[in-house]
Amino acid sequence: MMRVVRCPDCGALIELPGGTRSGDLVECPNCAGHALRVHEDAGRWSATLAYRVSCPECDEVMTLPDDVKPGDTVRCCDRIFRLTFEYGAYAAEEA
Known about the structure:
By secondary structure, the chain is an all-beta fold. The chain contains no helices and ten strands.
């Protein structure tokens, strides 16, 4: 049985790789840079956007937690950055 989820951004059906577990991240092949966090509940699979942000110092890409909101902070390169949200994406700025 093929396991699929629908991308919440573009609507495409995405086949889940073998071994995918609830909570894993998968890429949407149609949405550049979007990761999807997949969830399984009673045999039904769903997906939510897993937002990512690049460190302004080293360009490391960090996947943000599900409950992230603008104004939260992240740490990278021994520095703290405040998250902003515009045009459907997060950015990290000097705190």
